[in-house]
Backbone:
């Protein structure tokens, strides 16, 4: 229990940093960053992923590909918190010359495994990384976070088909199922459901979990890592804007940064 | 004269470079046509058929390159440059990855499959992407040596091969990126060619010789980077430049040469290629006749221009 408390405290810090960096940048994606924060904290602080922040190119490391690249403020804040780079860099988000680009750039920032943001390309690259482990005779896992809206991209299904075909048991796909996309609810814009059955149809072992309750996240991801016969999908029920009352489940905050006033209010809630 | 297809060289060269255990080969259900199947016969564990899903194939290649492998991914030129353009841009070029893409069955010489399958804008598309190198071999030897050279090359490469057999006109020697070769020197006109058109350019030059027109024929397999020095020297001498390619006149070799010369040595440039139109079904020879890719048509076109 105590460990979950620790993760919750870390998540608060990361959420504060996400909102502060977005406020300084003046633009960016608040809602989807907050919805994946707890998953990232579990991966990087909960002992799910094997990595060494001092050796970002360590060959045996587990990889995280953020296919929904627009949520990169959450990833940047997490990577900074575990020491991939100086935290001061967070305040340069989206500025000219900053390695913290509007969408993740693997060439510019340590810890970013793939340039993503054009939806669908991240998960396909993750499949390539998982398949490469077989050629390289390595044991690493590849975690890939996709958005639920991203499930509308056809390329996702090409990637799933290949992952199932090659039985990539070192691939764990996590869907950030917050139910919202820019234009509204996923089910209204272009219905993506059912999700579980889709993954199962592509020969994934599929789990559902809460994306915000640490015991549930840790148990599910630990189980997912044990799968040696097929790729795994984890559909995470999440809340867009999680942790900030006035942003929660509000589609208006998909691609909007908090104003000074909103930031102040939000930081108070996250104390 | 011995005839062989450049796609055959791709398959053969893959076997040679397969000695390097970092080399992996991907195809999208066309391995028998692109000839990547040759690699599969020797190194089945490093060959990955990705099914009819070119976009995913290219992204998977990117993921493999990010993991330290050297992927070679092939499909028909029309699909790898068209269907997969987005991952080529977002994943391969944006990350400047060591991935080699091979587009076979390029141009109208695909023949009977028709316009839907004839890539006429692939050079243009690939050339416009930052970091991408674009190579169009004139024959089997050149294609073979291009593939060998790409193993040590940094960054993305696009190699354009052909289905049809064509005469071997270059020597079997090491390929250098950014180098063109003068196949025949001349003083009146520069004729810069790539792919199967290099042979036709040579033949046209022989015809023009009979009319007293001394053509310098340059084979330019490296479209990007372009061998600016060779182009400059020739243009400076002849002051009249013609380009020829089995590709749209928009965005290909002719455009690359024009862009360079217009800024550095404005001389007369005339582009011979596919005139902003699609191909159609037919035999390769019939299509070459229709589209003006015969030595007679090329010679006449150059003569008309010189007189006009």
Residues:
């Amino acid at each position: 229990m105590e460990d979950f408390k620790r993760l919750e405290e870390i998540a608060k810090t990361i959420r504060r940093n996400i909102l502060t960096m977005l406020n300084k940048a003046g633009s960016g994606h608040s809602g989807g960053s907050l919805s994946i924060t707890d998953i990232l904290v579990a991966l990087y602080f909960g002992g799910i992923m094997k990595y060494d922040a001092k050796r970002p190119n360590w060959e045996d490391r587990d990889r995280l590909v953020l296919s929904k690249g627009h949520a990169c403020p959450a990833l940047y804040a997490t990577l900074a918190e575990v020491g991939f780079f100086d935290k001061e860099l967070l305040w340069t988000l989206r500025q000219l010359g900053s390695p913290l680009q509007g969408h993740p750039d693997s060439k510019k920032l340590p810890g970013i495994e793939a340039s993503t943001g054009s939806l669908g390309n991240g998960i396909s690259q993750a499949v390539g990384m998982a398949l490469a482990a077989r050629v390289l005779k390595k044991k690493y896992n590849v975690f890939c976070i996709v958005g639920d809206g991203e499930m509308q991209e056809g390329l996702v299904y090409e990637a799933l088909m290949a992952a199932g075909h090659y039985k990539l048991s070192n691939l764990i796909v996590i869907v950030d199922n917050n139910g919202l996309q820019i234009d509204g609810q996923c089910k209204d814009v272009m219905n993506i459901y059912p999700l579980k059955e889709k993954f199962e149809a592509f020969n994934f072992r599929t789990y559902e979990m809460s994306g915000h309750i640490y015991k549930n996240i840790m148990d599910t991801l630990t189980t997912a890592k044990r799968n040696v016969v097929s790729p795994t999908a984890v559909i995470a029920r999440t809340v867009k804007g999680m942790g900030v009352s006035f942003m929660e489940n509000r589609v208006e905050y998909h691609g909007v940064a908090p104003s000074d006033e909103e930031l102040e209010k939000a930081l108070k809630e996250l104390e | 004269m011995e005839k062989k297809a450049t796609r055959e060289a791709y398959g053969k060269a893959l076997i040679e470079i397969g000695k390097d255990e970092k080399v992996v080969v991907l195809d999208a259900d066309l391995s028998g046509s692109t000839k990547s199947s040759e690699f599969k016969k020797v190194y089945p564990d490093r060959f990955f058929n990705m099914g009819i899903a070119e976009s995913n194939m290219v992204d998977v290649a990117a993921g493999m390159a990010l993991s330290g492998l050297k992927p070679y991914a092939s499909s028909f030129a029309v699909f790898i440059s068209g269907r997969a353009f987005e991952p080529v841009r977002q994943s391969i070029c944006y990350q400047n990855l060591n991935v080699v893409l091979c587009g076979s069955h390029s141009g109208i010489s695909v023949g009977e499959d028709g316009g839907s399958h004839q890539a006429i804008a692939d050079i243009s598309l690939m050339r416009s992407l930052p970091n991408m190198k674009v190579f169009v071999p004139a024959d089997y030897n050149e294609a073979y040596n291009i593939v060998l050279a790409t193993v040590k090359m940094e960054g993305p490469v696009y190699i354009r091969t052909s289905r049809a057999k064509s005469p071997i006109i270059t020597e079997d020697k090491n390929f250098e990126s950014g180098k063109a070769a003068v196949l025949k020197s001349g003083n009146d006109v520069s004729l810069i060619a790539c792919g199967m058109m290099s042979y036709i350019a040579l033949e046209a030059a022989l015809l023009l010789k009979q009319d007293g027109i001394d053509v310098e024929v340059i084979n330019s397999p490296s479209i990007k980077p372009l061998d600016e020095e060779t182009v400059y020297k020739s243009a400076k001498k002849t002051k009249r430049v013609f380009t020829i390619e089995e590709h749209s006149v928009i965005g290909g070799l002719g455009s690359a040469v024009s862009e360079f010369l217009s800024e550095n040595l404005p001389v007369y440039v005339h582009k011979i290629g596919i005139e902003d139109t699609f191909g159609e079904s037919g035999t390769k020879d019939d299509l070459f006749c229709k589209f003006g890719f015969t030595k007679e048509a090329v010679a006449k076109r150059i003569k008309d221009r010189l007189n006009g």
User: Anything to note?
Assistant: Residues 2-269 of chain A form a domain with the Rossmann fold fold (CATH 3.40.50.970). Chain A has one domain: 2-269.
